[in-house]
Design brief:
Layout (H helix, E strand, L loop, with lengths): L6 H9 L6 H20 L5 E2 L5 E3 L7 E4 L4 E8 L6 E6 L5 E3 L4 E4 L9 E9 L3 E10 L10 E9 L1
């Protein structure tokens, strides 16, 4: 007949500190560190230039951007122009955000043919208020085709 564990012995086991192996503790620490790194890398911090200009990228899509009147909003979006796709402004109120000429192209560090580049749009904040800004990544000769990607932000001008 098996022995029954006494109540005292059972309570003593429950009150004893848990024993964790070094391997389990190290694994837990690595998982926690990875999570903190991932959360830190996706934080919604935007680059603000010393001049007060604000830089937004695809990581800011769907969010709100605050900018002061007279400052420049710089929109940097990755593009692979060799495919025929490019970013095109589909919604903007020029009385709030005035486009400063055609977008420029900047290399993303890879000089190989067909590599991804950045299409850079610059807008000046003209008057206080809130306005949506939307761009679509599409081929100009396919106006009825749905865009491959979209980018939008709400711009709050102070």
């Amino acid at each position: 007949m098996p022995e029954l564990v006494s109540t005292r012995a059972f309570i003593r086991v429950l009150r004893s500190p848990p024993r964790v192996s070094r391997c389990a503790a190290t694994g837990t620490a690595l998982v926690l560190a990875s999570w903190l790194l991932a959360v830190g890398c996706t934080s919604p911090l935007r680059a603000v230039e010393p001049s007060g200009d604000v830089v937004v990228t695809e990581r800011d899509a769907g969010g709100e951007v605050g900018i002061t009147r007279g400052a420049t909003l710089i929109v940097r979006l990755s593009a692979q122009l060799g495919t025929g796709y490019s970013w095109q402004i589909s919604e903007n109120d020029p009385s709030h955000l005035r486009l400063l000429g055609p977008p420029s192209l900047e290399r993303s560090g890879n000089d190989q043919p067909g590599a991804t580049q950045e299409q850079v749009f610059r807008f000046v904040a003209e008057k206080p208020g809130t306005t949506p800004l939307m761009l679509r990544y599409r081929r100009p000769w396919e106006p009825d085709a749905p865009p491959a990607r979209t980018f939008s932000v709400h711009v709050r001008i102070r």
